Amino acid sequence: MIVCIDSGNTRIKWGIRDDDAWLAQGVLAHSEVADLGSLLNQWEPSRVLLSNVAGPQALADIQQALAPWQGLIREVKSCASGLDVRNGYDNPAQLGVDRWCALIGARGITKGACLVVLAGTATTIDTLDASGQFRGGLILPGLDLMRRALARDTAALPLANGDHDHFPRNTDDAIISGCLEAQLGAIERAFARIAGEPDAICLLSGGAAQMLAPQLSIPHRLIDNLVLEGLARQGLAQDS
Prior knowledge:
Elements: E1 2-7, E2 11-18, E3 21-29, H1 35-43, E4 47-52, H2 56-65, E5 73-75, E6 81-82, E7 85-87, H3 97-109, E8 114-119, E9 122-128, E10 133-141, H4 143-153, H5 171-192, E11 201-205, H6 209-212, E12 220-222, H7 226-239
Parallel strand pairs: 1-4, 4-5, 7-10, 8-11, 11-12
Antiparallel strand pairs: 1-2, 2-3, 6-7, 8-9, 9-10
Helix pairs in contact: 3-7, 4-5
């Protein structure tokens, strides 16, 4: 049994994996990190895999919460290749580990060309070809970052709480629609570069994925947590 922990910029996502099935998944605020200890007490894992992009303090907090299980913990790092994925970054170690794990998770879901989108605090849009080569990707502010930037850095615009509309007629709707359309446009432009390849698909994950998916005009599939999928693949490969 493997515990997978995805420590993101905003939240900690966790999952309990046994062979090919998820037994449980959940989300914690970083302020609730101490609850990870009771999670491991409950499940008694053989291995703990950790992806952390939230910085050294978040890592230290997780390690403290899991101190009795230090011998089981492996902090995953980005590398040049693994599990049929080749890292095309100029400096492979510089690729965010969440993006690396998501690519490995995506490769376990489809062997065709795919666009791997993590829609969280930031939105990342990565291209993985049918051979398993990571070609490169985009990073842009996530939906909430865009919305907050307009409220923070302009004198007249509010922290919008509107609805998506193709023809917005009030400021809140205009901001929400503009931020959403910017995300969709970036995703669809990136997908156009692989659209002609057989069975090309966009795999979409992250907190804002549910807002983006209904508006996409490209083949896509929602995945609960691609980072956890990638962590599980790596853990299961070590156990086999």
